[in-house]
């Protein structure tokens, strides 16, 4: 072998494990989804990834498998760079144009969160890896047809609320701000989280009912302190940034965030809250997902007190495994090269 080529080969073999380690750490976490009002994927995960209860969530799993629900915080476009309308085709807004989540785009009787028709609301974004950027909230226009896949033309032209560089508290971005004005009945809240330190953006659809009086979805909050690798290992280490199938013990929101609700749809802080009530069969803090009725709404705990929890997904295990594999291959390559050199030397000596 030419000495120069040999040097290049050795350099590649020596640095390959480092490159894979960098790749593994780069994908260790997905990033987030809307927690209140709960996004479609968050609500379906709360029902149980392996055995969802509502027809809409069953259809999602039928289309994309349960892995889509384990990857609840990965509905994204890595090359968005604020070109959302150009990159995502009509009818694919809820999946962010990612075929791995195409079931989110299918019209159906998605469970909805009840919202007031005016005032402020404690919008919450569940985040597993914070980044600099902005979050914009859009609402569908009057006359929106929920029996059709969401199109860009279904949304109001401008966001009704935007927050720049929110700071995470206990795994949540607090986006408290105004409700869209003049809305009633069923709508979709479309949320875009665009990073400013990367072209990557995240998308979610939350089904809501303005002025609704039925039982609504609970807030979806992350499980604090969970090692992202634990659930991934329990789920069998499937490809992607998946997590396990066990339901974690609930972790309530911080004490300073808890507020009382008098049943009028507002908290004692004067902010509207999603309407929900505790199931008589499930005591507060029950880790089972809320049951779904025929109207596509969930019986849930009071969102201001007991939120459903989503596990923090993504794992360093896959990256470390690949790193070890490449390291072994690199070592084997170096050993092979050394043997070739020795054999060549022996041949020349003879």
Automatic annotation (TrEMBL):
One Pfam family name is LPMO_10
Keywords from the UniProt entry: Membrane, Signal, Transmembrane, Transmembrane helix
Does the UniProt entry include the keyword Transmembrane helix?
yes
Stretches with biased composition (Low complexity) = 272-284
What's the domain of life for this entry? Answer: Bacteria
Q: Which residues form the signal peptide?
A: 1-30
Coiled-coil zones: none
- Chitin-binding type-4 domain location is 31-208
| Bilayer-spanning residue ranges | 317-338
Q: Please list where the region (Disordered) is annotated.
A: 214-310
Entry-linked InterPro entries? Cellulose/chitin-bd_N, GlcNAc_Chitin_IntDeg, Ig_E-set
Q: Tell me what this protein is called.
A: Chitin-binding protein
UniProt source species: Nocardiopsis ansamitocini
In the record, what lineage is assigned to the organism producing the protein? Bacteria, Bacillati, Actinomycetota, Actinomycetes, Streptosporangiales
